[in-house]
Amino acid sequence: MPVPVPSDVPATHREVRLAARPGRELTVRHFTVAEAPVPQPVPGQVLVRTRVMAVTAAMRTQLTGVRLPMPSFVPGEALWGSAVGEVVAAPGGGFTPGELVHHPYGWREFAVVEEGRLRRLAPDALPSLAAHLSQGATAWGALRRAAGVRPGDTVFVSGAAGGVGSLAGQLARRLGARRVVGSTGSERKASRLRAELGYDDTVVRGAGPIEEQLRRAAPDGIDVLLDTVGGEQLAAALAVARPDARFALVGALSSQLGEDGGVAAPVALDAGLIITRRVTLRGFGLYAHPDLPEEWTREFGQGLRDGSLVFPHTLLKGIEQAPRALCELVQGRHIGAVLVEL
């Protein structure tokens, strides 16, 4: 049976629902902000009040209904995604009201969450709640575990202005990289990458062939690729790879942010180059490394406090701003993570 919630919890809350699947262009008209009863937990569940939620490029793909390795959003139903919240009621006794937790049901002001899908957050682990929603764990794991960045390496990060890439340049430098190159979609973003986020040089999409720009930016070739884009940029990285280069593939933005919002990013790769240069290509997903968030939080907290790391992000306020936040992310209007404070 559902357990009564504290008297200060409202009877209703707001949630963002998918109104219609988008076609070529994603707009706020594809969403609706609806009022719904606050759900009541049963033993084994926890009622959480959401404080901050993230929007990510993968959500654009989940809107389309194409076949995915994760569930797609359903028209008429609330969206979901990574969020930080506060425990309000926990009838099973596994959590305590007031605890901070990470949960997977953002896009709503209150959520009932199974105890096994919650991760406790130490209040003093990071300087802000928003920092718990960085995508730095993916960047850290890909560079440290999948690609194994070594002192003296030249590192290329595709999609360097995104949630992963805006931290990856700093982390590559932290791991000893000699030179770090990033790609992005505009000179405005490229300037910030070079000035603030650890990048020595940049490749700008649309400013000429990617391979030519990358050869100029990394004249001695690259040792490591952290790829969030796929497509032409992956092929260009292979063309300039040094012997024993290590590639960590974490995303396919070239497809996810395209017209169909899919996950496939087909590209022709030269098998001869892979063999003769002994290039390692490895896919990396955070879900396969459950110990990484805790490791990353320690590293990130230290870096934020001593000033050796910064967390680029945009924070919009109010759940009604969530549709705009996702549309602006898809349009490439921001650098770093895009978050909504509820």
**Backbone CA Rg:** 21 Å
Give the terminus-to-terminus CA distance.
29 Å
Helix content: 25-40%
Say how many strands there are: 15
Category by helix and strand content: alpha/beta
- How much strand content do the residues show? 25-35%
Main β-sheet: number of strands, strand sense, barrel status? 7 strands, mixed
Please report the number of helical segments.
10
Shape: globular
Could you list the spans in which at least 5 consecutive residues all have pLDDT below 50? 258-262
What is the string of SSEs from the N terminus onward? EEEHEEEEHEHEHEHEHEHHEHEHE
Could you tell me the mean pLDDT? 93
Description:
This protein has 342 residues and is α/β, with parallel strands linked by helices. Helix content is 25%, strand content 25%. The protein has helices at 58-62, 136-146, 165-174, 187-196, 210-217, 231-239, 253-256, 271-276, 292-306, 322-330; strands at 12-18, 31-37, 45-55, 83-89, 100-103, 110-114, 119-121, 154-157, 179-184, 201-204, 222-227, 241-249, 280-283, 313-317, 337-341. Strands 3, 4, 5, 6, 7, 14 and 15 form a seven-stranded mixed beta sheet that branches. A six-stranded parallel beta sheet has the order 10-9-8-11-12-13, with helices on both faces. The protein has a two-stranded antiparallel sheet with strand order 1-2. Helix 2 crosses helix 9 (292-306) and helix 5 packs across helix 6. The radius of gyration is 21 Å and the shape is globular. Mean pLDDT is 93; it is low at 258-262.
Keywords:
6-stranded parallel sheet, alpha/beta, single chain, 342 residues, 7-stranded mixed sheet
